[in-house]
Amino acid sequence: MNKTFTKIFAIFWKDMLTELRTKEIIVSVLVFALLVLVVFGFTFGAGLEITEMVAPGILWVALTFGGVIGLNRIFAVEKENSRLEGLMLCPVDRAVIYWGKLAGSFTFMLAVAFVITPIFLALFNLPVFLPRLALIIILATLGFAAVGTLFSALAVNTRARDIMLPVLFLPVVVPVIVSAVKATGPVLAGGPWGDMLTWLQILIAFDIIYLVAATLVFEFVVEE
Amino acid sequence: MNSNHTLRNSILWGLGFALMIAALYMVFVYVPTEKHTGVVQRIFYFHVPVAWVSFLAFFITFLASIFYLWKREIKWDAIACASVEVGVIFTTLVLITGPIWAKPVWGIWWTWDARLTTSLVLWLIYIAYLLVRSFATEPTRAARYSAVIGIVGFVDVPIVFITVNLWRTQHPTAIIFEGGLAPPMLMTLLVCIAAFTVLYILLVIQSAGLKTMEADIKRLRSMKAE
What we know:
The structure holds two protein chains of two kinds. Chain A is mainly α. Chain A has helices spanning 2-22, 24-44, 48-80, 83-89, 94-123, 131-155, 161-172, 174-189, 193-222. The radius of gyration of chain A is 18 Å and the shape is globular. Chain B has helices at 6-30, 44-71, 74-106, 114-135, 139-167, 183-225. Chain B is globular and about 70 Å long. In chain B, 80% of the residues lie in helices and 0% in strands. Chain B is an all-alpha fold. In chain B, helix 2 (44-71) runs antiparallel to helix 3 and helix 2 packs across helix 5. Chain B is built from six helices and no strands. Chain B has one domain.
């Protein structure tokens, strides 16, 4: 068990180091998500009642589309320098590669989410300190990362890789988006825990189902 | 199609033809007009069977995808792909006949309730399946990737349905299961379901057979070229 964790951590740390040096993924995702927020700010105007209704949707559209941009890069960097073949030569279970990349993409997306969310809350005049929101963000980002890492590995080997990932990813991830938006609503309005509970349950169920499914099926995507 | 199957295929063709004629007769002549919504309700007899058969199609794809990844025989990939093609066509029909029925009856073309949204997401997932096949760099990869999508996509469908169901609901409740359908209507519906299921089977057999033959020809050509 320890050996597996060491291998997963090795892959994860490789991605972290690359990212810390180039800051390639995080910067592009952050800027893009921010732009989405700004565009929504313009399109929806400044009416307060409207803001309350659409705010959760705006946040999750920004995080979803930013996430798609980031996920595209997760395996694109491997493909560019033939690093994928190098990774495949390692005597590791293919699922270990999945979990290593998953840890990386989850961390990046989470980092972006924790920067974007306070900015979003400030831009739309909502309370800024919301710990319950953190729980929703973590669960939803895990769902995005679980599905996205699998599809990123798949899409990167096709001819239209930039369009293939969103086309595959977005329909499958609809339950995560719906649950995240519905759970965020009561949190922003200061409602009780009970309101969000069903949605959190769906998020957790989705995460578990997809982590298991992707682990089982990942080897078929990367085999040569 | 080899000669072992000619009898089976002839029977299926005959059965399918007879069922479809019977279905058309029953829907347009035999069944009484529904008293609340009028003539447009007859779309129900096409809309519902086509929806159920499309779910069947994607379930078959799910099974065929698993078999392909396990056995790596072309025929499983052919069945999976043929089933998706027919399933996508049928889902498109569902998404077209639904709004046509909805507009006069509910007053709206579309709503984001559980069944409609799930149908739309289903359609998108399997369109992605077909896109991956055309954008893959070579046939074995196309088969492998689409098998993965056939499995992962199908797993998603119940989750989407449950999620959106919790979200909102406007689609009429399944009258069929509550025994609220008059006998002539139930009979018509059953005949239509049978007709469309046989149509599905015929289309998949033809399409999968063609794909398998194409793959064989390719293989023979490349063997000859060596």
